[in-house]
Amino acid sequence: MINLNKKILSAAVCVALSQSALVSSAYAQDSGSSGKLDIEEVVVTGTKRSVAQQDLSVAVTTVTSKQLEATFQNDVTALTELAPNVNLTPQTGFRAIAGGMRGTGFNSILVTKDASVGITVDEFAFNNVQSQFIEMFDMEQVEIYRGPQGTVFGKNTTGGAIAFTTRKPVLGEFFGDIEGNFSQFASNDSNATKLKFSLNVPLGDTLAARLAVIQDKSDGWYTNDKPAGGEFQSLGCPFPGQPGSAECNDAARSKFPDVGNGEDLNGIDVLAGKLKFRWQPSDFYTADLTFEYVKDRSDTVAAANETPLADQNGGEGYLWPIAGFPGIGNGDPFSTGQSYTATRVVDIPGGHKIDADGIYLNQTFNFDKYEAKWIFGMRDQDEVLASTYTGEAYTSQYDASRNSQREMLQNEFRLASNYDGPFNFVTGAAYYEDDVDFLVYGNLGYFLIFSGPAAEFYRETYEIQVTQQDRESYAFYIDGSYDITDSLKLTAGFRRTEDEKDFTRLSLGTAANPISNFISEDQFIGPHTNPLPESAFGNVIKDNEDFSANTYRLVLDYQFSDDVMIYGSVATGFVAGGFSETCGSEFSCTPYASEENENYELGAKADLMDGTLRLNAALFHTTYENLQRDTVLPFKDAAGNDFQETVAVNEGESTAIGFELEMTYVPTPNFRIDMNFGWLDHEYDSYDPFYEPGTLGVAGDLQRFDFSSLEVPYSPEFNGGVSFTYFQDMASGSSLTYNLNMHYQDEAEINPAPASFQGGTLDNPILVAKANTQLEERTLVNAYITWASSEDAFEVSLYGKNLLDEEYRNSANPVANLWNFTTYGPPRELGLQVGYSF
């Protein structure tokens, strides 16, 4: 009864004290002061046809450009606060996307791994987690589709899909916008600035151009000043009590300091721009051509060492506390450390360098009864990601530069009908390429625990790992609807997807020389060039595999009136199988299979009370099979040395039951309430992978462990929010808009099996989730006030995010039995935004 009451209370608090799916919906598209807060009539295009959101029998949240702007941030994770059962977090140690929707998602930066949420920008697909961390600027709207979308979006949509639509050039008009933003973080008084500029220029009667640019900079809310914690044990020194330990440690402290120099960490420095052209010589033909450029010179992503000490949580077998690394300094996760490594090979102060450019051409042909569309795009992305993962200023435990070159291509043709009768359809075929060359230079300082006299070798050399994957995908889809009666409609869709991956992996040393894959700095040629021959590697894998799937959906909806509709659906989705980028043996480099799911859903959409109240709800039941999960396996290199690795495998099944509610209510023309609420009960039906006992903190041979009692990652039980917006006309013709919004999210696991052994036997162990590896429960309170001049030419906003300065972990990654590193969400941020439209 106590637990039930707690759940009921949590649900009530969630609904009453959390932010809305339309967190900043202070504006409608209508003109006139009395219509600023009206409920919008939104048309969505993510299902390959233009359909009114309220007529679409899919759980979808549409966020307009004004709503996005009023979140005062421009990365994809902002969408977490805008829709129920959406949980997008940063990858630990990277500016990339983790998590997903309705209990999907993973915390892995593998460049060969497909995401479980599909993301498209102007219908160009981004299916890799690193590429998905796009800059949200110059957006027209964002459509968030929850549940599998395997028919029209394709693979990697078991959790849902997010369709971004950017603003297009407008023929015959000259106008522009400029917006500046300045803010400050409470943790270290560091600053952040944003500058956005857009310009629309007519180039004759049938051609127009649009330029949109964003410069996003911040100093970062972490500080490299974590104090030393007790007796420091240099990893290259004998342990306390052994001969020479004191003298070695005194020398090591000066040579390898363990306290930072006080600079700000985790800063952002991104310049991104898009140049767009629209040519419309007639009503029959429209062409949209876009050139994209991204230059990212942000800091190395900061992290906190949140490794439990030996006397905490029953002991979890981590080795880092033995060396004297203290975890979070003085209880402040924003006071942390960062490695001093700064060489041509691994340059931690040099940060993360990302360059991307793309060209996209969408052509539309309007016939009498049909619309044909040809979508073509190419995108190249180069990365040099110098990363340190431990939250310590010590040089070096594990520093690496993860460097990749990725080329993507999409070519899609589709045909949509526009019949006057009861039947209409959309059909198409698509071809995709996604080729990546990946090179890792690793400085393996953690070997110093065991290295003895060879310590300096690991200080001055770099391990090389090479991965290459070429992927080709083909798809054919058809989706049609038939009006059985004036009120009853049947929709059915089918998609055939074939995915072919060619994989190459070079790693580890040879039997004759276990360190043959190490180089010195003198041998370094460049960040994307492997200086070693294939014969220098003991693990050489070349393989290819095809992954195919048939996905479908079947929907029946009934229109009670023009304003009330209910629907029932069954839909499937899949995440393509693949190869583990980090694999180190022939066994672990074998491909894993595709993950699949099936979703049953009942939903309702209603516009009531003369259009002043909108209620959308969905109840779903989803089963997942062939779950793609990380597991830790032991292996021997070519020389017979023992290692362990984390690789993706197919283990287990799970079932998710959930409920989602979205509400918008406008009781007066000047007051609006937006709310969303999500509830999720997601449990493993089975999950018993082979696992390395040493990672659990006990000795033993590789065996199966039953992890089904652990919580499924990214499955908070409750989430949701509420937003209050008030609009005030001023006598001068200007206006004020006030907004207060709150967002609540329950705690949740992040990784599939970071467990520790807490008793019992190996045959019947007591396993609990490792400490400090969870998303923490948090409530974020935000507010803003905006003054707009008459005709909305000028706007000035004062805003605050996380006003209660809540401290919460939003990402974590335990590294075997070595250490655990985490990241925390932004502290309180206060800012000023000024905009001018001309």
TrEMBL record:
<keyword id="KW-0732">Signal</keyword>
<dbReference type="Pfam" id="PF00593">
    <property type="entry name" value="TonB_dep_Rec_b-barrel"/>
</dbReference>
<keyword id="KW-0998">Cell outer membrane</keyword>
<keyword id="KW-0675">Receptor</keyword>
<keyword id="KW-0406">Ion transport</keyword>
<keyword id="KW-0472">Membrane</keyword>
<dbReference type="InterPro" id="IPR039426">
    <property type="entry name" value="TonB-dep_rcpt-like"/>
</dbReference>
<dbReference type="InterPro" id="IPR000531">
    <property type="entry name" value="Beta-barrel_TonB"/>
</dbReference>
<keyword id="KW-1134">Transmembrane beta strand</keyword>
<dbReference type="GO" id="GO:0006826">
    <property type="term" value="P:iron ion transport"/>
</dbReference>
<dbReference type="InterPro" id="IPR036942">
    <property type="entry name" value="Beta-barrel_TonB_sf"/>
</dbReference>
<feature type="domain" description="TonB-dependent receptor plug">
    <location>
        <begin position="53"/>
        <end position="161"/>
    </location>
</feature>
<feature type="domain" description="TonB-dependent receptor-like beta-barrel">
    <location>
        <begin position="310"/>
        <end position="803"/>
    </location>
</feature>
<keyword id="KW-0813">Transport</keyword>
<feature type="signal peptide">
    <location>
        <begin position="1"/>
        <end position="28"/>
    </location>
</feature>
<keyword id="KW-0410">Iron transport</keyword>
<comment type="similarity">
    <text>Belongs to the TonB-dependent receptor family.</text>
</comment>
<keyword id="KW-0408">Iron</keyword>
<keyword id="KW-0812">Transmembrane</keyword>
<dbReference type="GO" id="GO:0009279">
    <property type="term" value="C:cell outer membrane"/>
</dbReference>
<protein>
    <submittedName>
        <fullName>TonB-dependent receptor</fullName>
    </submittedName>
</protein>
<keyword id="KW-0798">TonB box</keyword>
<dbReference type="InterPro" id="IPR012910">
    <property type="entry name" value="Plug_dom"/>
</dbReference>
<dbReference type="Pfam" id="PF07715">
    <property type="entry name" value="Plug"/>
</dbReference>
